[in-house]
Amino acid sequence: MKQTILVADGDAAIRSLIRDILSNRGYRVLTASTAVEALGALERGAPDVIFLDASLDGAEMVAGEAGRQGVPLVAVADGEESPASLTERLDAIGYLQKPVRREWLEMLARQGAVFRDCLGRGRRRAEDLSLSRGFLEAVLEADDGAIYLLDADGVLLRTNLLGEQMLQCAPDAGEAQRYLDLLSGHSSDLQGAALGRARDTGVIQRVEEHRGGTVYATRIRPVPGKGGPSGFVVKTVDISGRRRSEVELAESEKRYRSVYEACRDAIIMFDRNDGAVLDCNAAARRLYGYGAEEMLALTILELTDEPERSLEMIRAGVEHVPLRYHRNKVGVSFPVEVSMSHFVHNGREVCTAYIRDISQHKVVEEALREGARLYRAVVEDQTELICRYNTDNQVTFANGAFARFFGVDEDEIVGTEFFPHVAMDERRDLRSWLRDAGPDNPVFDREQHVRRHDGEARWILWTNRTILDYRGNIIEIQAVGRDITEQKDAERALALATEEKEQYRQNLEAIFRSIPDAIVSVDSQCRIIATNSAAASLLAVERERAVGLDFEEAVNDSGNPCLSVLKQVLKTSKAVRGYEAEIDLAARGQRMVELNCTPLIDHEKRHTGAVLVVRDVSRIADLEKRLQERHGFRGIIGRSMGMQEMYKLLEQLSPLDSIVLILGESGTGKELVAEALHYGGPRAGAPLIKVNCSALSESLLESELFGHVRGAFTGAVRDKVGRIQAAQGGTLFLDEIGDISPLIQLKLLRFLEQKEYERVGESKTRSADVRIIAATNVNLLQAVMKGTFREDLYYRLNVMPVQLPPLRDRQGDIPLLVEHFLEIFSGQFNKAFKGVSDEVMDLFMSYAWPGNVRELRHILEHACILSPGKEIGIEHMRGDLVSQMRTPGYAPAPSAPAPWSAPGVMPELAPAPSPYAQASVPPHYAQVPAPPVFPRKAGREEVLAALARCGWNKARAARELGIHRATLYRKLKAWGLDA
Residue 747 has what pLDDT? Predict the structure, then answer.
């Protein structure tokens, strides 16, 4: 093939000259006038030689590309630049000076071609060397050990990745390092000695060493060379696993040998061809009476009573021989059971025989036969149905109870099939159990509905139990039948009762869910047991999440009245009924609820918790409140503005424990107010103890209040519980508190301050949890100023005063009071009173009532006694009272002025004056003006004037005129003004 030469020169004449000369010499010549054309020619195919004009623009680029492609380059120049610098600048192999000389041109062309051939051979040799190195690297990395290639002086030439990891330090490729210098001291000594032996002998050396619990095996192979090894191949392998396996194998062999020797049964290894004894354990030597060497000299023929038969069974590969007779060293025969396993060991057929002496089994068989006789004697006396059957379902035994139940003969039933006595479903289940029965599944129970021989249907519970041999194989099955007819009847009745109970439970749950009242049951620790759906909306107690929670945690309010009621019931075990309280609900706001709480009692009469029923009575409370605004409050009758204000104050004071001082004239109902405060608060379930302080002397009052011990004073023959102790947890009502002596005032003050007291004649201090309500008709402030009442006790009592208005200040309540008392006396005297006459009502409305409500009650009681019924007339009243009531201007001074009251100001809103400003506090009689005295019969002019002043409000006009509203209506109707 022609060699190709590229001529790149800007001078056309030079290009033509070089082309003609080289073409005549047989070269293929390409030309280029610019560097771009030369680069294009290089891209199309690399020429063998390039003649490049050094002055051509871009000559360096062309030279660089030629160098990358390995094309030899000849620089062409005019001699201005030295040949050395020119060839160095263009990396040229030669220099051609212009004008071109033919012989130089041809010589340089030949040198370039030769240079190109040399470059090709070098490139191919480098590729072969790279391939060889790649194979070497692959071989090194594919090996499972660390491989090191050393030269004759022990310098490390190459290693694989595992070798680098095992070296003490990584080898430096840039420096020659001795292999031994990279090893630790001990390893360097061992392998250095092995390298020396390999160098001297030319034989492979092996070294084994331990490094940190790991065993390494190193093999050093010398590479033969002239006059000795030219190098070494060192391979190091981790053989720890192999060493462990060898150790474990030795341990396993040791354990096998220990088990082999410790086995209680005789184990003998025979040669299957001639029956020679190859090995035996200690049990075999004891069984036959031979020593170890004596046993190894025997054959099976010398150990059995049937030598030929035994050898045939060994050769035939029999695995189990249930009974054979062997003989020992002294010639005594004994029965044995033999199990054999056959295998090949080192090309030799071997039989290992496990031989068990069953001499004791014969004794056991005799004992079993005796046990069978005893068993039959026992089962024959049993009332249960007992039979046995074998694996072929044939009855092998049946007791008398079985035969009597089915009406068959005991001997005739033996040998018959057991399954005909079993129904189809039971038979299928029984056969399924028999297929899987064994040591892991020995018992099968099944109830069967059968008919007795007389036709009566009975339920039998069959218990089938397998009887196994010592190998766990089923010999027989024993079936024991128990008559459970009564039990089934009881179960059926129980199921019906349970179903009925479940129906009741479901109905009860439906009722429980449908009740709009919130129901919560708690245990003795106040943990929630159950709730209904209404509790979620009313108390924010969710049924799913509340069970098990403490009630206080569930409602998240320690001051919740529901919690207080529950704790009281759990503490006292007494029910709380009809307790009304306000609770704050996040979704509904303030609601009035009625709380009913009852203890939970178990069958042993023990209190195990409580049931709380919460009813939203807000609407009822509103209605009651409206009704009370018309009629009264907790037994107190009245609808006047003063009474309504007092009712509001009582509602605020009822749930509190603050001391309340009730002020008012005699007969205004102070005791009713005390009862309303007690029974409307949280202490309603506890006692209300009343003490009339003015009715007892100082010594008796002290004893009544605080109690006394036996011998405290003359006549104290036994301990007495005081009123304070009796009121524990409840309320103590001290009536007429203004009449007590200074000594009692002092002791009472101490009790009010510290809630502690001492019984008369006793030094032990006691504490009491009671609420104090006091009442008086005495002006306590005036008593303080006079020095008859302690000032500190006055301020301690005057925490929350309640002023009761006299009846003359609430004449609009007189008709309600009359109606109320007439209703009471109607039942008391068994008469029907419809009301009072207009004349009587006019008289009542115009009277000042110095005795207040009590006086009104007594006047009506007297009239009801004299009246035959229906309407109370003026003739039924006492004459002297009628004359007194008709006396104009009769208004006796009240006995209980209110020192803080002012005309037209409610007691709870009026400021309390200083106790020292006695001159500034006028008597109450001066504060309360006498009621107006109207004529007994108001005329037309007075009525019309009153109506005009009241804006024709008939109720207000009637009160102003001092007559009953019905009287006003009657007068207007008579005058034709009823419209």
Answer: 84
Residue reference for tokens 């011990």: 709
Q: Which of 59, 60, 233 is nearest to 145 (CA)?
A: 233
DSSP 615-648: EE-HHHHHHHHHHHHHSEETTEE--SHHHHHHHH
Question: pLDDT tens for residues 722-774?
Answer: 888 888 889 988 888 888 888 888 888 888 888 888 888 787 888 888 989 99
Q: Is the dihedral of CA 909, 915, 916, 920 positive or negative?
A: positive
- Residue 527: what are its φ and ψ, rounded to 5°? -95, 140
pLDDT of the residue at 921? 33
Residue 368 and residue 383 in contact, taking contact as beta carbons nearer than 8 Å = no
The secondary structure of residue 911, as a DSSP letter, is P
Say which residue the tokens 């047991």 belong to: 529
Longest Cα–Cα distance of the chain, Å, equals 182
pLDDT grade for 354, boundaries at 50, 70 and 90: very high
Question: C-alpha 658: how far from its chain's center?
Answer: 45
pLDDT at 267 > cutoff 90: yes
Q: What pLDDT sits at residue 801?
A: 92
Please give the pLDDT value at position 271: 92
Say if CB 353 and CB 339 are below 8 A apart. yes
Query: Is 316:340 a contact under the CB 8 Å cutoff?
Result: no
Number of H helices and E strands in the chain, helices first, is: 36, 38
Q: Tell me the pLDDT tens digit for each residue of 370-398.
A: 777 777 777 777 788 888 888 888 888 88
- Written as one string, the DSSP assignment of 362-378 is HHHHHHHHHHHHHHHHH
d(CA 828, CA 594): 32
Given a contact cutoff of 8 angstroms between Cβ atoms, the answer to whether 772 and 734 are in contact is yes
What does the angle CA 60 – CA 62 – CA 67 come to, to the nearest 5 degrees? 90
Q: Say what the pTM is.
A: 0.36
Ordered alpha helix ranges (H), 101-143: 102-142
d(CA 707, CA 764): 12
Is 160's pLDDT higher than 70?
yes
In angstroms, the CA 102 to CA 14 distance is: 12
Residue with tokens 């190193």: 218
Burial category of 239 from C-beta neighbours within 10 Å (exposed 0-12, middle 13-18, buried 19 and up): middle
Distance CA 875, CA 867 (A): 9
From 341-345, 660-664, 915-919, the region with the lowest mean pLDDT: 915-919
Helix (H, G, I), strand (E, B) or coil at 232: strand
The DSSP call for residue 299 is B
Instruction: Tell me the chain's radius of gyration from C-alpha atoms.
Output: 65
Nearest to residue 164, comparing CAs of 189, 192, 141, 134? Answer: 141
pLDDT digits (tens, 9 = 90+) for 623-661: 665 554 546 677 788 877 888 888 888 888 888 888 999
CA atoms in the 13 A half-sphere facing the CB of 766: 19
Highest mean pLDDT among 151-160, 291-300, 496-505: 291-300
Q: What per-residue confidence (pLDDT) applies to 932?
A: 39
Q: Helix, strand or coil for residue 306?
A: coil
Strands 49-53 and 28-32: unpaired
Average pLDDT, the chain: 81
DSSP category for residue 143? S
Strands 277-280 and 348-357: unpaired
Nearest-angstrom CA–CA distance, 924 and 895: 9
Q: Which residues of 693-717 are buried (b: 16+ CB within 10 A; e: fewer)?
A: beebeeeebbbbbbbbbeebeeeee
CB 459 within 8 A of CB 448: yes
On whether the CB atoms of residues 612 and 530 are closer than 8 A, the answer is: no
Length of the chain equals 979
Q: Are 460 and 448 within 8 A, CB to CB?
A: yes
AA letter at 197: R
Nearest of 651, 699, 704, 691 to residue 772 by alpha carbon: 691
End-to-end Cα distance, the chain: 149
